Amino acid sequence: MKYLKALAATFAFVLVLLAVYAAHVRYGKVDVVLYSAVLDAALAAAIVGGGLFALKAFAEFSRFEKVQMLCLWMLGGYAFAISVPTVIDRSLSFYLLEKIHQRGGGIHVDRLHHVVTQEYMVEHRLIDVRLTEQLQSGTIEVIEDCVRLTERGRGLVGFSRFFRGNLLPRQRLLLGEYSDDLTDPFRNSVADVSYRCG
């Protein structure tokens, strides 16, 4: 009986999460999709958790068990936030599938570069979205039309460069060939660039 009540409460959390998320994206303002969806999960957990602690139907659960359920719901909400809205919002893979569908079910391989650089960047306002996310995250700041890393940004870059260089696959399949190109994508980058700011 106790397990059925826990399952019912979890089902209620999922329903409330989906309702809160749908209402937020339909009627609310969203700065960053990931942060917004995590906030929705926290709100849903608070709503259902309030019922969990207030209703006599759940009195047989100890405080520890209730806190465990709240933690599991937050983990599930976080997984939802990353795996569904954030992936669909950010994913080049989903974009390519949608674009192939839009273009009648097929695109020539040699034209995909054009699709990504000329259509994806514009249609998804990619620069605007990424700058907004990084500004909201506190990893960059814009000073006199110059985008600069903050201390937090430098720390994140240090972590990502270490992870990329040491913990990404060295034999990754890229169009029929195994390569380590993505462990150091700047390996063949041009050093002399004109877009630096002082």
TrEMBL record:
It comes from the Bacteria. It comes from Lysobacter enzymogenes. This is Uncharacterized protein.
